[in-house]
Amino acid sequence: MNRLINLCLGAASLAIIHQPLSSSAAITLWGWNFTGATGSELSVASTTTASGLESSTLSRNSLTATAMADGFAANDWSNYTMNSSAVDYYSFTLTPQSGQAYSISSVSFTANIAYSWEPTTWEIRSSIDSYANTLGTAATIASPGTPMPHSINLSGNSSFQNVSSSIQFRLYGYNGTGFGGLKSVSGADGLNVSGSVSAVPEPVSTALIAGIGLGLFALRHRFSNKQ
């Protein structure tokens, strides 16, 4: 009897300890490949969405859609500087399905402008801090007409790990006015969010396992007192 109780206790303890964890291998969680797009689409749904996540839509705020082959573009950028009054941006919201959580390792994009007076600086902010701070570093386009890839590492930022709720991201273009957008080059994503997805442990299951463990402890204590 004592041996059986010990075995049950061990199994319950292992079940509590070994909760589902995120895979360490980064995959594309959401991706936007603009290959074949005209650039003037009103919005673009993610062309890649990992299992366990909801599709995300890229859209404009206070901007006029315009053409750019294999891209997502806009005219009327008017953010001379990046401050609280900046209203021109692209946005997308990341949402997991019920019972799932995501961890973001990086956000990458390729920005494109045609002339030096257009928005040369691009950065991403999020709803986590009400868009108060730049994530990582801003991208600066040194050669207008040449698409510039940029990647932001978020693997060390706890705010973007094991997230089970929605986060909105905004991509701001500034230090210039006029035309600017995102572009897919050589068939690659023009915007990509990488990381991992994991199942959220169910509180009921954990409580049940803990209850079984406590019950077995009490049973063993009772059994020991009778000997």
Describe this structure in words.
With 227 residues, the chain is of the alpha+beta class. The chain has one domain (28-205): Jelly Rolls. Helix content is 18%, strand content 36%. The protein has 2 helices and 14 strands. Strands 1, 3, 5, 6, 8, 11, 13 and 14 form an 8-stranded antiparallel beta sheet that branches. A 6-stranded antiparallel beta sheet has the order 2-4-7-12-9-10, with no helix packed on it. Strand 5 (64-66) and strand 6 form a beta hairpin. Helix 1 (2-17) packs antiparallel against helix 2. The chain is globular and about 55 Å long. The model is unreliable at 4-22 (pLDDT under 50).
In a nutshell, what does this entry contain?
With 227 residues, the chain is an alpha+beta fold.
Give a quick set of tags describing it.
227 residues, alpha+beta, Jelly Rolls, eight-stranded antiparallel sheet, 14 strands, 18% helix, globular
Biggest sheet record: 8 strands, antiparallel
Distance between the termini: 12 Å
Tally the helices: 2
- Structural category is alpha+beta
The domain tally reads 1
Share of helix, binned? 10-25%
How large is the share of residues in beta strands? 35-45%
Q: Average pLDDT value?
A: 85
CATH fold descriptor: Jelly Rolls
Spell out the helices and strands N to C.
HEEEEEEEEEEEEEEH
**Any idea of the CATH class?**
Mainly Beta
What's the total number of strands?
Answer: 14
The appropriate CATH architecture is Sandwich
Shape: globular
The low-confidence parts are 4-22
Radius of gyration: 24 Å
Oligomer: single chain
